[in-house]
Design goal:
0% strand; 109 residues
Amino acid sequence: MEKKKIKEIEKIISKELNETLISINEYKELTKPISPENSIGRVSRMDAINNRAVMEESLRKLEIKYKKLQFIKTQTQKEDFGMCIKCKNEIPVGRIMIIPESRFCVKCV
């Protein structure tokens, strides 16, 4: 892969890392425990608990994405960067630009 493309991908990865970290911090705020002394109705409390569970799952996915991005950032200077880890074919640059943490080509996903 061209060095110019790799530099562009590194910028995208850095941007994604920053945005993902911001989202993680926002979701951490949204998943804080709901205090029982807050006077919201029983149904509203159940809604809040359900919403919290959804937010916790989203938080877990963001944390996984963040770890993958951190790993990929360490791989950009390696010779096999941009190669599918399953079939060893080159991953299209467009896919890497959209999903920088991807280690598989579309066929192998």
